[in-house]
Amino acid sequence: MKEPTRHERQLRCFRKRRYRSQGDALDAALVAGVERQRRAYLCPDCRMWHLTSVEAGPRGRGLSRMRAP
Distance between alpha carbon 59 and the CA centroid of its chain, in Å? Predict the structure, then answer.
């Protein structure tokens, strides 16, 4: 699978909620009642926190196509 372009990554990021801190993201998951189904990650594109339902991979990243910051 080809790597997404910078523009594609930005569009994907734009559609997600952003949180200032990991704690804020996890608090939002707690309020929504999905804290056990979500984890927070620092987005390498916007440098803010998002929630994901994808399990962390062997390198600690939820999505294998996510690049390191």
Answer: 15
Q: What angle do CA 7, 10, 14 make, to 5 degrees?
A: 140
CA 9 to chain centroid? 12
Give me the pLDDT at residue 21, please: 96
Q: Is the pTM of this model over 0.85?
A: no
**DSSP result, the chain:** -PPPPHHHHHHHHHTS--BSSHHHHHHHHHHHT-TTT-EEEE-TTTSSEEEE-SPP-TTS-SSTTPPP-
| Assigned token pair, 50 | 């998002």
Regions of the chain where pLDDT drops below 70: 55-69
Contact assessment for residue 51 and residue 40, using Cβ atoms and an 8 Å cutoff: yes
Alpha carbon distance 69, 50 (integer Å): 14
